[in-house]
Amino acid sequence: MSQKLIKDNIKIYKGHIMFTESPEKFNILENGFIIVEDNKVKKVASELPEEYKDIPVKDFGNKIIIPGFVDLHLHAPQFPNAGLGLDKELLPWLEEYTFPEEAKYKDTDYARKVYSRVVEELWKNGTTRSVIFASVHKESTALLFDLLVKAGLGAYVGKVNMDRNCPDFIREDTQESLKATREYLEAHVGKSELVKPIITPRFVPTCTVEVLEELGKMAKEFNVPIQSHLSENTGEVEWVKELHPEHKNYASVYDCYSLFGQKPTVMAHCIYNTEDEVGLMKDNEVYVAHCPHSNLNLSSGIMPVRYFLDKGVNVGLGSDISGGHKIGIPSVMAVAAQVSKIKWLETNKELAPLSTPEVFYLGTKGGGKFFGKVGSFEEGYEFDALVIDDSNFFGDDLTLEERIQRFIYLGDDRNIVERYVAGNKVEKPSF
Ligand code: GUN
Ligand code: FE
Are 61 and 126 within one domain? Predict the structure, then answer.
C-alpha cells in the first residue's frame, strides 16, 4: 500500500526530448525518459534508471516532447480584432480599433463568449503559461481568471487601469479605478496555484500619477507582479516626454512609482530604450516581452533583442494579440528570428541574428522564468510539456534539431497532440 502511494506521484514519459537549458544550444535526448515526481521534473535520462524499472512508461515513440510555450504579453479582449486595423500605427490603432472593442467587456455575457474562445485558443496552441491584459472591467477580468483556472492553464491576469488621455467611454474615474483594482486583488490573491492577479497600468500616457503611485503601493501590499508597455512607438515616447518632463526617461516614470522591478515586472516591446533604461532593467531584473508580430504590424520598429541579451536583461516572447495577429508562440519565434536578421543588417552586422535555439529559449525558459521554474526540463522544473507529432511533414531523414526548426516555421496546433501543465495532462476546455 505505502509502496503504491509512493509510485503514484511518479510519472515516466518516453520520446525524443528537446529543451534549452541555455540559449546557445538544444538539450537533446533521442528516445529519452522524463521522470516526473510530484508534478516536477526529477530527471531526464537516456536510459531508465534501475529504481524506476517497475513503473509504467508512457511511450510517445517518434514524437518530440518539448516544454510548453510561454506568452509573456497578450490582450484577451482584443482577440476579436486579430488581423484588423493593422495598417495603422499604435496611437490611432488604439483609438479606432482597440478602445471601442475593449469597451464591450462591460457586458459579461460578451466577455464570457470571447474569453472562452481565447482560453481554448491558448490551450490549442500549446501556450501553457501566459501573462494577460484583460480590460478595465473588474467583473469580466474575474471571469477570464476563472475560465483559466477551469482550463488548468497557468496565467497572470490583470485588470487594466486607465484614467486619462482616452475616450470617455473607456476612461475610469481615478478613485473607481483604484477601488476596483483593490477589490480584484482582494478576491484573487491566493485563489489559485496556477492563475494569479497582476497589477496592470495600461501605459504611462493613460495613467495619472495618482494611479501609478497607488498601484505601486498595492503591488507591495499584495505582493503581486506588474505588467505594462514601454517604448513601443516613437510618437508614444515623445508623448511621455511631454507629459513627464520631470523624468529623465520613460522607464524612470514607472521606476519612480515602484512599478519597475520592485516586484517582478514585465514590460512589453522596449524598442526605443536608452542605455540608461536598459541598465535599470538589468539592475531591477525587469523582463521584456518581445512582440515582433505586433511591432511589424503597427510599424513600431525592431527591438534590438541581442543588445538586451548581451546586457543580461531577461527576455521572453509575446503574441501581443491583437497588435500581433497570431496567438501561437512558434510563429512568434519564427518572426523573432526573421526580424533579428534585419536588425543585424541594419546595425552593420553588429547585433548578431537570433539562432533557432535562442528563439526557442525565449519562447519557453526565457519567459518561463517569470513564473518560477518553468520552461525547461531541468531538475525541479514544473512539468509543463507538449507532445509534438510532425509526421505530416515531408521527409523523414532529419535530425531532431531540424525537425524542431521545421515545426517552428511550418507547424501549428495540429502538430500538438498532448499538453501538460504543472504535471497534469490538460484536455480541451469545455465551458
Ligand atoms: N500600448 C498601450 N496599450 C496598448 C495595447 O493595447 N497594445 C499595444 N501593442 N500597445 C499598447
Ligand atoms: Fe500590448
Answer: no
